[in-house]
Amino acid sequence: MSTGIGARDSLSGLSGVWLDWMRRLKVALGAARGLAYLHELVNPRIIHRDVKTANILLDECLNAKVADFGLSRPMDNSDLILSTTQVKGTAGYIDPEYKESLLLTEKSDVYGFGVVLLELVTGRKPFERGRFLVAAVRSSMDREKDVYNHHELLDPNIGLDTKPKGLDKIVDLAMKCVQEKGSDRPTMGGVVKEIENILHLAGLNPDAESESTSACFEEASQDEIPPSLREEEVSLS
């Protein structure tokens, strides 16, 4: 059995681990690489079908791993679309196109990942107080204003006083991922490349080895990390 903490618990503060902006970028990259691996490198390809922060586990050095494949579906390499009989997933992360058509594609995972990116930026849940996070970000977005007019939505823990490098680009990428039509969304491979470029912009090496375990915990955690009950993981970090 593997151990780890969910990214959702870290964003909410329940884990005792603090994710600053740089750590959130690394979490985004690790999760994106894991999904790209499922979509592009395994045979048969796999659609995760339940991409969410609760299913992204962080190891002792805060490397992200995609976990929980209970709803996953393999796809024959000749197929681009899988017809389903009912919608599966978690409210707030479900691809609206899949919800309407019952046609599952890899772009459904891309939509869920876009919501994950918005959670990393805002610290908010995908659905709360009767409103979806995607709708809240979309309705307040104004690219002519500082941080796209999202001051009230952004998580202050990412250090807004110094405007985190790459913040606007991550929001742009998230909104590409949550386009209504799957055909308008990037592939996970394309998402990985964009996040790697954003890390370079922020002064990080996306291929650098993680810090030592002791350094990670001394800086990021005050509490003992609770054991995870999830056993299956995919990661390229």
Tell me what the structure shows.
Keywords: ATP-binding, Kinase, Nucleotide-binding, Serine/threonine-protein kinase, Transferase. Pfam families: PK_Tyr_Ser-Thr. It comes from Salix suchowensis. This is Protein kinase domain-containing protein. InterPro entries: Kinase-like_dom_sf, Prot_kinase_dom, Ser-Thr/Tyr_kinase_cat_dom, Ser/Thr_kinase_AS. It is a single chain. With 237 residues, the chain is α+β, with helices and mostly antiparallel strands. It has one domain: Transferase(Phosphotransferase) domain 1 (Transferase(Phosphotransferase), domain 1). The protein is built from 8 helices and 10 strands. A 4-stranded antiparallel beta sheet has the order 1-3-4-10. Strand 3 and strand 4 form a beta hairpin. Helix 2 packs antiparallel against helix 4, helix 2 runs antiparallel to helix 7 and helix 4 packs antiparallel against helix 6. The longest helix is centred in the N-terminal third of the chain and has 20 residues. It starts with a strand and ends with a strand. The C terminus is likely disordered.
